[in-house]
Amino acid sequence: MPHDHHDHLSPSGHPYRSDNDAPLSYWQVMEIAVRELMIEKGEVTAAEVAAQIDAMDARNPSHGARVVARAWDEPEFRAALLADATNATREMGFDIGPMNLVAVENTQDVHNVIVCTLCSCYPRNLLGLPPDWYKTREYRSRTVKEPRKVLAEFGVELPDNVTCRVHDSTADMRYIVLPARPKGTDGWTQEALAELVTRDSMIGTGLAKQP
Amino acid sequence: MGGDAAGPVPTDQHDFALWEKRVDALMILGAARGHFTVDGLRRALEDMGEQAFEDMSYYERWIASINQNLIEAGVYSLEELGSKMEEVRTRGETYGAAQDV
Amino acid sequence: MYEPGQTVRIRALQPPGHVRTPHYLRGKTGVIERVLGPYENPEQRAYMLPAPEKPLYRVRFSMAEIWGDGAEHPEDTLDAEIYEHWIEAAHAA
Known about the structure:
Chain A has helices spanning 26-40, 46-58, 61-73, 75-83, 85-90, 124-127, 137-142, 147-153, 190-194, 199-203, and strands at residues 100-105, 110-115, 163-168, 173-178. Chain A is α/β, with parallel strands linked by helices. In chain A, helix 3 crosses helix 4 (75-83). The longest helix of chain A is centred in the first third of the chain and has 15 residues, at 26-40. The N and C termini of chain A lie far apart (47 Å). Mean pLDDT of chain A is 90; it is low at 1-17. By secondary structure, chain B is mostly helical. In chain B, helix 1 (18-32) runs parallel beside helix 4 (58-73) and helix 2 (38-47) crosses helix 4 (58-73). The termini of chain B are far apart. Helices cover 10% and strands 39% of the residues of chain C. Chain C is built from two helices and five strands, in the order ββαβαββ. Chain C has helices spanning 42-45, 63-67; strands at residues 7-10, 29-40, 53-62, 77-83, 87-89. In chain C, strands 4-3-2-1-5 form a five-stranded antiparallel beta sheet. The two termini of chain C are 21 Å apart. Classes of the chains: A alpha/beta, B mainly alpha, C mainly beta. Chains in contact: A-B, A-C, B-C. Chains A and B meet through helix 1, helix 2 and helix 7 of A and helix 1, helix 2, helix 4 and helix 5 of B. Strand 3 (163-168) of chain A pairs parallel with strand 4 of chain C.
């Protein structure tokens, strides 16, 4: 295969990328040109680009799930997370870089959901890259106006007596939802609890799994 | 776009292609080098107009915005970009084939 | 400076160019939820200009205030980050 010398293995170890064999698009040409010009000008190295992609691939919702499980298990950590999520998660090794993180807690009276109407702000250090739907016009347009209808499409039906709090994440802060702990999980280890925490439950479009 | 009427939220999910991940990496590395800010990227995205949202994919819009910001920052010239794109096109007909050796 | 609990109105300015304040909140009245601190003004950062720091607030709005009779559930809320120069003091609605 002519394309495998610069190929990048995905975490799945899948070496073949069908997108590498599709007809070259104008924007792919631009990406190659911009990247090579950046390298020629000494702005970046090919190794830095590859390392950045590796770091991106290594971040996934299991990081956020560990944070949530710990908050369910340790009241002091939960308080620290809600007071200053940036530092609480940094101490767990999840550095959010120059951003700041805000954790919002779901209770029996309040359900939180996160959206970015301006582009696609997302707590990548804890959840990885945002899902496609998070970046769509539909999700971004509707969640600030009819969050309950949007949540229903994701299978979450909010009772009338629960307040829905929408958070429009617009650049300086990143938001993560601390979902409600499922009943019947008393005494569970943090590892077991983390298995119940889905990506969508930390965006607010889902709930934690029931045991 | 907050509040505009729109249809059901599409739930299709695709694995990110290598070229898309590279765009993402260039965004982070270019910002880390101080050539642009997230606000500059958004400004260029917004200046593309509403139609770009219909016609271009997410990472197509982002590479266009990154390029616009790098041109404005003087990292390379339009002539250099045009020459490089011309040369890349001669390498092959697929993304894989168009990589420099 | 504004304080948590204070009622404020978002200015209804419509300049061209990159502005962080969402369009759907301009002219709306909300309550300061928390003070986030000083951040460089994105309206200058967007053009790589020297950007003085401005206080940034999280402001909470009721859906009834934003969407009026079109609100899906009037008591639901929306929080957004708003820079101080887009905020003016207001009386509780």
